[in-house]
Amino acid sequence: MTLSAGNRIGLAGAAVVGVAFGMARYAYGLTLPGVREDLELSELMLGLVSSATFAGYLAGLLLAGRLAARHGSRAPTTVGGACGAAGAVIVTSAQSPWLLAVGVVLAGSAGGWVWAPYSDIVTRAVPARQQPRALAIITTGTSGGLLLLGGLAVPAALGSWRLVWAGIALAAVAAAVVNLRLVPRTGPAPRSNAQSGASEPAAALRVPAVYSVVYFAVVVIYFTYAADSLDRGTLPAAAVPALYAAIDLTGMVGVATGALAQRMGSLRVAALSLVTVGAALALLGLASDSLAATMASACIFGAGYMTGSAVLAVWTAELVPDRAGAAFTACLVVGATSSVAAPAVAGAIIPGLGLGALLVLTAAVSLLSGVALMLHGAWRGATTTRTGP
């Protein structure tokens, strides 16, 4: 059976995005307990290395547009696949914190390289009627990658944390090969993304940008320290892969974000996402020794995480419809910067407060930010009503 252009590109994109976002970006948090024990790293060093992962993502995000402008939109996706594979190989064999940092920077950059180019590839190589389906298939790659990452945690629990990264290396190579075979080469694309996004009206993107700062910071704290929190308790080793599987399964509700935003408004959906993630963090921080509470936290987080990510794309498209991609990327750059800072700050705080207290403090930031966003929406609605016809 011959696949349509939309299905071919969708499947290839799902594979690459699944490895880059669902696996390479978040594997460090999953393997953190093993990394700490094997390499004997301090909390501060662990936090700095985690930040390096997201610094790599930010670098890839900023450089992808330049590469596409010279060599076409498929080039950044190929580079992203190569970075994911090479970084994972380096982490697998790392015997020092510096080599570990180099590996996680390369692996973390993969998500940045592949984020925007697939949107350009789809709009240029797929018939208009097939584009929504292709983009939806690509988006689901993150959930599939998280599920596979949870599966890799099983053999890792029985052997070594390095098995997770070895599995990611193999998956990255396989995805890169699929991408080269199924995605057509395109001509040079115009320079865009972060640089174009910077010229968007500041007033239009101010609130989504603030949301991005909080959302990406609290999400990266959860992913970085969830496995470590479970490892410090009395739960069985199987709790970690179960947590990732629960996040993936409940994250599927993110497909309904568009319809939900139409009914409630994107701002309210974003606010609810922050409240939901905050509740998940609070549960994890207060009851990480309870299997029921941990699974409830994972389920709540999965819904808030995927919905919160999807609503940012919907929100920026509503506010800046003529340059939605540039507006979205501008908010991603802001969020990536927040992702870089959050783990480093956490690593400095944990020795004094403890991991549980850090998670509860992060939960409070997320909850209060969600409430503030709701109040802002209500105030804006009241202002519009008073000044309307």
UniProtKB/TrEMBL annotation:
<keyword id="KW-0472">Membrane</keyword>
<feature type="transmembrane region" description="Helical">
    <location>
        <begin position="163"/>
        <end position="182"/>
    </location>
</feature>
<feature type="transmembrane region" description="Helical">
    <location>
        <begin position="356"/>
        <end position="379"/>
    </location>
</feature>
<feature type="transmembrane region" description="Helical">
    <location>
        <begin position="98"/>
        <end position="115"/>
    </location>
</feature>
<keyword id="KW-1133">Transmembrane helix</keyword>
<keyword id="KW-0812">Transmembrane</keyword>
<protein>
    <submittedName>
        <fullName>MFS transporter</fullName>
    </submittedName>
</protein>
<feature type="transmembrane region" description="Helical">
    <location>
        <begin position="75"/>
        <end position="92"/>
    </location>
</feature>
<feature type="transmembrane region" description="Helical">
    <location>
        <begin position="327"/>
        <end position="350"/>
    </location>
</feature>
<feature type="transmembrane region" description="Helical">
    <location>
        <begin position="293"/>
        <end position="315"/>
    </location>
</feature>
<dbReference type="Pfam" id="PF07690">
    <property type="entry name" value="MFS_1"/>
</dbReference>
<feature type="domain" description="Major facilitator superfamily (MFS) profile">
    <location>
        <begin position="10"/>
        <end position="381"/>
    </location>
</feature>
<feature type="transmembrane region" description="Helical">
    <location>
        <begin position="45"/>
        <end position="63"/>
    </location>
</feature>
<dbReference type="InterPro" id="IPR020846">
    <property type="entry name" value="MFS_dom"/>
</dbReference>
<dbReference type="InterPro" id="IPR036259">
    <property type="entry name" value="MFS_trans_sf"/>
</dbReference>
<feature type="transmembrane region" description="Helical">
    <location>
        <begin position="237"/>
        <end position="260"/>
    </location>
</feature>
<dbReference type="InterPro" id="IPR011701">
    <property type="entry name" value="MFS"/>
</dbReference>
<feature type="transmembrane region" description="Helical">
    <location>
        <begin position="203"/>
        <end position="225"/>
    </location>
</feature>
<feature type="transmembrane region" description="Helical">
    <location>
        <begin position="135"/>
        <end position="157"/>
    </location>
</feature>
<keyword id="KW-1003">Cell membrane</keyword>
<feature type="transmembrane region" description="Helical">
    <location>
        <begin position="267"/>
        <end position="287"/>
    </location>
</feature>
<dbReference type="InterPro" id="IPR050189">
    <property type="entry name" value="MFS_Efflux_Transporters"/>
</dbReference>
